[in-house]
Amino acid sequence: MEAVAEQKSVYLQDFQQRDRASEPTWWGTRRETAMQRFEAAGFPSRKVEAWKQTKLAHVTQEHFRAAASAGQLDQDAQSRLAVVDDAVRIVFVDGILDADRSQLDRLPDGLTVRTLADALQESGGVAETHLARHADAEAHPFLALNTAFTTEGLVIEVGSGAAPAQPLELVHVMTADAGSVAAWPRVLIHGATSSEVTVVQRYFGADGTAYMTSPVTEIVADANSQVNFYQHVEEGDQGAHLGVIHATVDRDARINGHALHASGRTVRTDFYVNLDGPGGDATLNGLYLVRNGQFADIHTWVRHNADHCTSQQLMKGVLEGKSEAVFDGMIHVARDAQQTDADQQNRNLLLSPKALAHSNPRLEIYADDVKCGHGSTVGELDEDAVLYMRTRGVSDEEARGVLTFAFANEMLESVALQSLREYEREALLSLLPGEEAVRKLL
Amino acid sequence: MALLEIRNLHATVEGEEILKGINLSLNTGEVHAIMGPNGSGKSTLAKVIAGDPGYEVTGGEVLLDGKDILEMEPEERAREGMFLGFQYPVEIPGVSNTYFLKAAANAIRKHRGEPEVDAAQFLKHVRERMELVQMDESLLKRPVNAGFSGGEKKRNEIFQMAVLEPRLAILDETDSGLDIDALRTVSHGVNALRSDDRGFLLITHYQRLLNYIVPDTVHVMVDGRIVKSGGKELAEELEASGYAMFEEGTAA
User: Fold this and answer.
1) Residue B244: predicted pLDDT
2) Which end of chain A has fewer beta carbons closer than 10 Å to its terminal beta carbon, N or C?
3) Number of domains present in the structure of chain B
4) Tens digits of residue pLDDT in A142-181
């Protein structure tokens, strides 16, 4: 516990030493509050229910600080910057916006994107109205740290009725120079009434570098709007990723979320969705691929606070070698949220006897006229299916590879952006056993 | 030389002996039927010949074209020309029937040192074979057996067999649970494939199948042993009298 107390103090010291003179008072107050919240609770011990299965020691014992300047992108990183076809791309390197690689000047009509610093200067604007006004209600240590420390980020506004055809692709790269660096990107997406937007956020980093990316995305979806967001995490093998996506969904609005955790030493995403107006809908899909020594975690908190809302969650995990994963999913139905239709499914495929998958569905239902379903499975490959394929001449390795791919690939079918789907499919193929053989069969 | 030669085959599952000394010799051009009550070991025999790792062979030999296959992996046996039609065909999500068949056909061809199938020719071959079992072409694009009815799954087994043209086909209760139309179709498929260089081993619980596929030899299997072998009239005898006399015979 001593180490944890110490860590708390180093972040407090960092906070107190920062020059925040240029920040508006309202923002300063929100930051102070967040810092106090973090300071009061510290990093969670394993006694804290929401964190008891998350392996954090290598994060809490290290002292991460924002980078003074961005590192150099290597060949590999450069080749991975652009994935989504026809997107407006905005790039962060080691947590710092890279203006030269970003396309803030070619935004489609109906879409306003400003840097966090710019948006903070506007009095009574969208940042003052919404930033840290929704997500910060949650008790989450890394969310609090993000609010306290973020300097780099974006405020995205979609105009009323606007539906820009181009998706936004936000790319967060951590370089080999990012040892002990923390990236705290903060993104606020405000979808005005009847608007629709697609935002892809991709995170990747250099292998062998111990860094921490701790992004917070706040989504505010006004009545009848739709926000599609994709979270693609491929951190380096020593990288930690502790992310929060928080959505506040008004009447008849829709949230479509998709997360892929492909790599990273410790990767956790917390999805908070508040369905606050009647007729809201949330779809959350997730896939985590965990290999030797890695840890992946998806927490969901879907709250039905109004009547006639629907939510669907489908999360799948594939675990190889000595690896561990957590899915912890809550559906909360408030007393007045009648006619709720909520479903949550989690399926895990263990490819090794040393892999460990935790699956914790949590349903809290206080209304009486609701339909809530949930299912949770942890299993191995269907040996009958393997044998069936082998009796037709297909090798054992091919059979296992194909069945594993098919299990995981179901999650990619819901990715509407073809270029992203293909990229994720390639990632999937390269991570799964029997790659070459599987390619031939598909 | 027999196509399939089984000598004193013993096999266990989880320590329990299921096959207790099976002897059987099947020549090319022949159709043999194995009948027997539930739990007699018929399906175990099929699975052991195909190489199901869930069973342990504790004694005896199985020769295909004179080659000992017991040390071979299931896929090697398939590539040597063996086909097992499953009693309960398995769904393979995410893999279309066509791709699956092409992969299977190529695996067999590679084993024989032949080049991969020509896509256009293969499709033509596949279409011909579909007609044989009156299978709807839409099923080709669907994942293997996914959402198929019971009858469609069994037809699909015969269809796959027809495409792969094995030397030896073992059909494990392919007739069970089929309505008469499906049974006719499946039987038609098998009869059309009967030839001088191919053999069939039909495992069945019901004599009805043998009205449609007339076997050369019928074996009665009880308690892990073949207790009687004879011509097709043996099946009719069984239909009339049941297995009781054989079961008493083994008990005595």
Assistant:
1) 79
2) N
3) 1
4) 999 999 999 999 999 999 999 999 999 999 999 999 999 9
| d(C-alpha A160, C-alpha A162), whole Å | 5
Range of the domain at B66: 4-251
Picking from A409, A330, A340, A408, the residue whose alpha carbon sits closest to that of residue A371 is A340
Whole-number CA gyration radius for chain B: 18
Q: Which uninterrupted H or E stretch holds A365?
A: strand A356-365
CB contact under 8 A, B89 and A390: no
Write the DSSP string, A44-96.
--TTSGGGTT---HHHHTS--B--SS-----HHHHHTS--STTPEEEEEETTE
DSSP one-letter string for B113-139? TPPPPPHHHHHHHHHHHHHHTT--THH
Contact present, A27 and A122 (Cβ < 8 Å): no
Length of chain B: 252
pLDDT of residue A1: 42
Q: What tokens does B108 get?
A: 């067999």
Please report the ipTM that was assigned to this predicted complex.
0.94
Q: What share of chain B is helix, strand, coil (3-state, %, to 5)?
A: 40, 30, 35
Q: Between chains, do A402 and B94 touch, taking CB under 8 Å as contact?
A: yes
* 8 Å CB contact between A213 and A238: no
Residue A101, judged by CB atoms within 10 A of its CB (0-12, 13-18, 19+), counts as: middle
Percent helix, strand, coil in chain A, to 5, is 25, 35, 35
Nearest to B239 by CA among B189, B187, B204, B196: B204
- Chain B closest CA to A168's CA: distance in Å? 31
Q: If contacts are CB pairs under 8 Å, which of residues 367-406 in chain A contact chain B?
A: 382-385, 387-396, 398, 402-403, 405-406
Reported confidence tier of residue B198, pLDDT bands at 50, 70, 90: very high
pLDDT bucket at A8, cuts 50 / 70 / 90: low
Q: A273 and A280 in contact (C-beta within 8 Å)? A: no
Mean pLDDT in chain A?
94
DSSP reduced 3-state for B28: coil
pLDDT per residue as tens digits for the range A328-362: 999 999 999 999 999 999 999 999 999 999 999 99
The Cα–Cα gap between A435 and A412 comes to: 17
Residue of B78, B92, B94 lying closest to A393 (CB–CB): B78
Q: Which of B179, B177, B137 is nearest to B156 (CA)?
A: B137
Check B73 against A390: CB less than 8 A apart: yes
Residue ranges of domains in chain A: 2-276, 382-442
